[in-house]
Amino acid sequence: MNEMETQLSRLFNAAVGEPPKDVTLRAIRRRVIRRRLVLSVTTTAALSLAVAVGLAVSANAGPRPALNHSTRASEPRYYFENDFMETPQSGRPETVVRSVATGAITGRIRCPGSHRLLHAAAAANDQTFFVACTTSTGAATRIYRFVVGKSGQVGALQPVRGGAIGGVRTGNMAGTPTGSQLAITAGPPVAGRTSEVIVVNTRSGAHAIWHAIMLRGGVRFIAYTLSFADSGRELAAFGFAACARGPGTCRSPGEEMVAVTNAARGGRLASGRVIFTEAQLVNPRVGWLNTAFISPDGSSVVTATNGTPPMTVYQISATTGRPTRVLLKLGGVRKRVNYRFISPDASGHFLLFTGIQFSLHVNELNGWISNGKLLPLRPEREINIEVW
Amino acid sequence: MQAGVDDFAQFVEARQRALQRTAWLLTGDWALAEDLVQTALARTWPRWERILRRDDPEIYVRRVMLNTWFTWRRRHWRAETAFEALPDRPAPGDLAAEVELRQMVGHVMANLSHRQRCVVVLRIFDDLSEAQVAQILGCAVGTVKSTMSQALAKLRSEPRLAELMERQVQ
């Protein structure tokens, strides 16, 4: 081997590393059996097909079982957060995985390559997370996936298939529980102007686009937060419906949540149903909502009010848009609390909460909601991104 | 018959990781690499005893693996990667640096044709002789030499490769 070949050999060895899984004799045996089945006589294949069709028909005949939202999932053990504290090594904000119980850092994540800025994150489930990384101009995004193991260790950081998005500025993100789909808000490369939602099939890399350029009555929808229901079939977008031709040129409902079915198809957000508008919860002249998420079974929505003390986190009905439960109340007129964002886990039961309390001093609030109380999480400083 | 099964099991145990690494360099994806190796071994197993009598099993399996990959490429096979649960492993070092290195090697390799990529991987990574590579690819030794020379010329003109090699030396 000449020098170049030797260097290439070293490089390949360093890049390849070790396979994550072994190929076992059992797996090969299964594949041999499958091959033999496929290659067997036509009558067997036809019979199998008939049986499969029969089974499929019988499986679809009855009503589809609804997701049991009342089943209590276990509390997440780890969360992923990015605060504004810069690390001395990189000079960039540190992004870490922490233990809920102790606050200890169990893993660190940084964006690889030229897409250095981590600007959004989403949890598919309690083990699989997505992060969106952008270039310094924000004009190109690369989405990565990583897993958090049972003891909080971080691994398998890899680019998501279909996760390279160029020419638009991306915003918030949401993933389905299996991680097979994710949605991200996007728009022209001007800060805060999202005009579409891109749904990425992370298995095939295919994109479906939901346009929100113009809704009914001259309104343009700017999506803030996204969430999936019905195993990824329904996509709910919460955002602000602004007058497309400037303030006061239309009757804007303000903040609202729109849900579309068949999320993987794409189309116009205007074709979706409006689940609720902010006027159903607050007086839009003084109050506002930052965030709303639909539950995994699509039956309820979690949102919270700002500007009309006390700050209240509501569970509302996805059918009527009316509050069905108060999950948390904080602050009052003298000790005002505003929340920054709320982030549900994959089950929709457990909510991360970050906010700010104004009294004599300004206190940062970071915690999770349990039985009407806010249980603190570290760090107690301003949080940029937090998911679990 | 049992001896054949035992031989095959030993071969799988001993060589599956090396085969997967070669497959990763071809596909750039661990799930696809695992799938490719499984497919190649599943196609080889029914003929195992005959292969042992007539051929070098390692060469045979690699030939099947490359032919399968060529077929997938011809069909523009872009099926989903087969993982429901992602492989879980601890992060001993800087994960992002590993991803960067893999992405850059992937970009560099993507500039080669499929045949050039096969020759480079088999000659340089698997350290096979030109004759063995020719046997696997079913071509003349001269073809392997010329393909290798063209591939290296292409790699030399790749600025990212020089940068990568420099980093590796550091």
Give an overview in words.
The complex is a heterodimer of chains A (388) and B (170). With 388 residues, chain A is mainly β. Helices cover 13% and strands 45% of the residues of chain A. In chain A, the strands form 6 sheets. A 5-stranded mixed beta sheet of chain A has the order 8-9-10-11-15, with no helix packed on it. Chain A is globular. By secondary structure, chain B is mostly helical. In chain B, α1 crosses α4 (57-74) and α2 packs across α4 (57-74). The termini of chain B are far apart. At the A-B interface, α1, α2, β3, β6 and β7 of A face α1, α2, α5, α6 and α8 of B.
The count of helical stretches of chain B stands at 9
Order of helices and strands of chain A: HHHEEEEEEEEEEEEEEEEEEEEEEEEE
- Spans of chain B of at least 5 consecutive residues whose pLDDT stays below 50 are 83-90
Overall average residue pLDDT of chain A:
85
Largest sheet of chain A: 5 strands, mixed
Q: SSE string of chain B, helix = H, strand = E?
A: HHHHHHHHH
The total of beta strands of chain A comes to 25
Question: Helix segment count of chain A?
Answer: 3
Q: So what's the overall shape of chain B?
A: globular
> Helicity range of the residues of chain B?
over 70%
Largest sheet of chain B: none
State the assembly state of the protein chains. heterodimer
Distance between the termini of chain B: 52 Å
Counting DSSP E segments of at least 2 residues, the number of strands of chain B comes to 0
Structural class of chain B: mainly alpha
Global structural class of chain A: mainly beta
Q: How are the strands of the largest sheet of chain A arranged?
A: 8-9-10-11-15
Categorize the overall geometry of chain A: globular
| Helicity of chain A, as a percent range | 10-25%
